[in-house]
Design brief:
Helix content is 66%, strand content 0%. The chain is mostly helical and 64 residues long. The chain has two domains: 1-31; 34-64, no CATH class.
């Protein structure tokens, strides 16, 4: 599925009340089991960042 840039940018034009509504529905979708792998990966990445176990942009490109 491709999301057009304009559809993403329109979120910035919404007021805070409407943004919170979108966030509510996005969270509901995210809780579905089909997104479990994504949630797990995000959790893992957050833990790596918290533990400062990350690769810098410079180091990443040096390794390639």
């Amino acid at each position: 599925m491709t999301v057009h840039k304009n559809k993403i940018n329109i979120i910035n034009e919404l007021d805070e009340k409407d943004k919170s509504k979108l966030l509510f529905f996005a969270e509901a979708l995210f809780k579905q089991s089909k997104y479990e792998r994504l949630r797990d990966e995000i959790g893992q990445r957050r833990k790596e960042i918290k533990d400062k176990n990350i690769t810098s942009h410079k180091d990443f490109w040096q390794d390639i």
